[in-house]
């Protein structure tokens, strides 16, 4: 339970008393002047300050500047007499949260305070979560929806049996890597290493030596001292194999042997090595299709999938969208040193009603862009590009023929735009299954992934 403290700074005693009496749920400190408030701030920093503008001595606007200089994140609600409205405008420009006009109407003051405290609550929640992640070494997995809570519950249970492999299935960007980290950190092996390999990112010929290592002189070009493989590096911990569907056949056979016996052969070795490693694998491909097509060993599929964790797409758990967006807002604001307290209501409505082909990764990209481009304290839809980018509704596949006038045309940019539309549409039709999406477009899976990474995920060449 989060608790809040606030200062009310007003020279009129009955206003101070009214605020104290009407806000029983909060710790309220009543102060009669700006000077007293500055003194009190040396002992205690509240969440919110209600600050009268017409104070004797140092006035409210001067005090606002002084306090902001010391505590830039502080939220203020200014209290003003009606005729002070011009001064209020000046104060609003200094970034105060809101203002109320005397005589005070307690109901509307309470509503204003509640709104301000809501943004503080979110800030505190994110901070508490981030601190927990740091101290407990937990991956920051925001899990509001019952679907992800169910996934995390399963993860907690299976993490306890470090001999059981875990297979994580889900569309790209749903958080499979985070879940793999959660399996590791909640397991008895959490003090051991967590070693990851993206099987799609390495040329097939290199995967075996990367995973199992090689002996000195195993092949021409081998390092003189040989090489330790990832299996050996992960001993006593967890090996995470991302995009496991891309594992070439020889590596599949060796992995199966390792899972069955705990033994492996380095390339060029005559005697086996031994390592105790928990294997967690993930894929966004349909492994059953790969098995049916003879591209993935059935026995390995069964062995890896002793425990299957299915991560639903973000579109299937809309309750997660805003909590995850707020989590990223806190993270990005800290990363870029910017002061954001939340989203505008319109930005929240647009975020919540949008569909996410790229799942959480796409949402993260939107918020990051917003934080970079926008100015605080509330992040607007425009800064995230939500106005120009019409939400993908699954209908249009891209622009029609762009006009070619005497000024010419950026043909490659236009073609990329069309391709981007088709890639997105195919992914949507295939419900995020990249193997199926590639088939729909008559593309080879690897070409599809390469083009998707470049055009949809913006990951460059
Ligand atoms: N529930 C969540 N809470 C917070 N961050 C999340 C959550 N889910 C995903 N993310 C973040 O979204 C990004 C994409 O997640 P991740 O890399 O785990 O996806 P993935 O399913 O492994 O994707 P791919 O299949 O493309 O490898 C990461 O930055 C991750 O930290």
From TrEMBL:
<dbReference type="GO" id="GO:0043565">
    <property type="term" value="F:sequence-specific DNA binding"/>
</dbReference>
<dbReference type="InterPro" id="IPR002197">
    <property type="entry name" value="HTH_Fis"/>
</dbReference>
<dbReference type="Pfam" id="PF02954">
    <property type="entry name" value="HTH_8"/>
</dbReference>
<keyword id="KW-0597">Phosphoprotein</keyword>
<keyword id="KW-0547">Nucleotide-binding</keyword>
<dbReference type="InterPro" id="IPR058031">
    <property type="entry name" value="AAA_lid_NorR"/>
</dbReference>
<dbReference type="Pfam" id="PF00072">
    <property type="entry name" value="Response_reg"/>
</dbReference>
<dbReference type="InterPro" id="IPR025943">
    <property type="entry name" value="Sigma_54_int_dom_ATP-bd_2"/>
</dbReference>
<feature type="modified residue" description="4-aspartylphosphate">
    <location>
        <position position="52"/>
    </location>
</feature>
<dbReference type="InterPro" id="IPR011006">
    <property type="entry name" value="CheY-like_superfamily"/>
</dbReference>
<dbReference type="Pfam" id="PF00158">
    <property type="entry name" value="Sigma54_activat"/>
</dbReference>
<protein>
    <submittedName>
        <fullName>Acetoacetate metabolism regulatory protein AtoC</fullName>
    </submittedName>
</protein>
<feature type="domain" description="Sigma-54 factor interaction">
    <location>
        <begin position="141"/>
        <end position="372"/>
    </location>
</feature>
<keyword id="KW-0067">ATP-binding</keyword>
<dbReference type="GO" id="GO:0005524">
    <property type="term" value="F:ATP binding"/>
</dbReference>
<dbReference type="InterPro" id="IPR003593">
    <property type="entry name" value="AAA+_ATPase"/>
</dbReference>
<dbReference type="GO" id="GO:0000160">
    <property type="term" value="P:phosphorelay signal transduction system"/>
</dbReference>
<feature type="region of interest" description="Disordered">
    <location>
        <begin position="387"/>
        <end position="410"/>
    </location>
</feature>
<dbReference type="Pfam" id="PF25601">
    <property type="entry name" value="AAA_lid_14"/>
</dbReference>
<dbReference type="InterPro" id="IPR025662">
    <property type="entry name" value="Sigma_54_int_dom_ATP-bd_1"/>
</dbReference>
<dbReference type="InterPro" id="IPR002078">
    <property type="entry name" value="Sigma_54_int"/>
</dbReference>
<dbReference type="InterPro" id="IPR001789">
    <property type="entry name" value="Sig_transdc_resp-reg_receiver"/>
</dbReference>
<keyword id="KW-0804">Transcription</keyword>
<dbReference type="InterPro" id="IPR009057">
    <property type="entry name" value="Homeodomain-like_sf"/>
</dbReference>
<feature type="domain" description="Response regulatory">
    <location>
        <begin position="5"/>
        <end position="117"/>
    </location>
</feature>
<dbReference type="InterPro" id="IPR027417">
    <property type="entry name" value="P-loop_NTPase"/>
</dbReference>
<dbReference type="GO" id="GO:0006355">
    <property type="term" value="P:regulation of DNA-templated transcription"/>
</dbReference>
<keyword id="KW-0805">Transcription regulation</keyword>
């Amino acid at each position: 339970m989060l608790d809040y403290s606030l200062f009310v700074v007003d020279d009129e005693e009955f206003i101070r008393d009214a605020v104290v009496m009407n806000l029983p749920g909060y710790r309220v400190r009543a102060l009669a002047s700006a000077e007293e408030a500055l003194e009190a701030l040396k002992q205690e920093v509240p969440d919110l300050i209600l600050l009268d503008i017409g104070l004797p001595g140092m006035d409210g606007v001067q005090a606002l500047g002084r306090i902001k200089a010391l505590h830039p994140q502080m939220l203020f609600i200014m209290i003003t007499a009606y005729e002070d409205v011009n001064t209020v405008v000046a104060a609003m420009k200094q970034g105060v949260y809101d203002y109320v006009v005397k005589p005070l109407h307690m109901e509307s003051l309470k509503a204003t305070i509640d709104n301000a405290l809501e943004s503080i609550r979110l800030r505190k929640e994110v901070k508490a979560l981030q601190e927990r992640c740091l101290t407990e070494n937990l991956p920051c997995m925001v899990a509001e929806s019952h679907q992800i809570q169910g996934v995390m519950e399963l993860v907690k249970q299976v993490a306890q049996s470090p001999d059981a492999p875990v297979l994580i299935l889900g569309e790209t960007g749903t958080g499979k890597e985070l879940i793999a980290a959660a399996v590791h950190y909640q397991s008895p092996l959490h003090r051991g290493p967590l070693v990851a390999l993206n099987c799609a990112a390495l040329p097939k010929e290199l995967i075996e030596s990367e995973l199992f290592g090689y002996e000195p002189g195993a092949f021409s070009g081998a390092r003189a001292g040989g090489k330790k493989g990832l299996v050996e590096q992960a001993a006593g911990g967890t090996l995470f194999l991302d995009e496991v569907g891309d594992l070439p056949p020889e590596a599949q056979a060796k992995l199966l042997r390792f899972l069955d016996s705990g033994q492996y052969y380095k390339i060029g070795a005559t005697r086996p090595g031994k390592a105790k490693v928990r294997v967690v694998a993930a894929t966004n491909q349909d492994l059953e299709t790969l098995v049916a097509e003879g591209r993935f060993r059935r026995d390995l599929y069964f062995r890896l999938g002793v425990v299957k964790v299915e991560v639903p797409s973000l579109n299937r758990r809309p309750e997660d969208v805003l909590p995850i967006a707020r989590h990223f807002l806190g993270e990005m604001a800290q990363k870029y040193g910017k002061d954001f307290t939340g989203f505008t209501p319109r930005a929240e409505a647009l975020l919540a009603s949008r569909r996410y082909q790229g799942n959480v990764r796409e949402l993260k990209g939107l918020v990051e862009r917003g934080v970079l481009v926008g100015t605080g304290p509330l992040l607007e839809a425009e800064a995230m590009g939500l106005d120009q980018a019409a939400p993908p509704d699954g209908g249009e596949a891209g622009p029609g023929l762009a006009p070619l006038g005497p000024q010419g045309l950026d043909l490659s940019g236009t073609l990329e735009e069309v391709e981007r539309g088709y890639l997105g549409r195919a992914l949507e039709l295939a419900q995020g299954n990249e193997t199926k999406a590639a088939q729909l477009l008559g593309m080879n899976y690897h070409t599809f992934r390469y083009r998707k990474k470049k055009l949809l995920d913006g990951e460059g060449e």
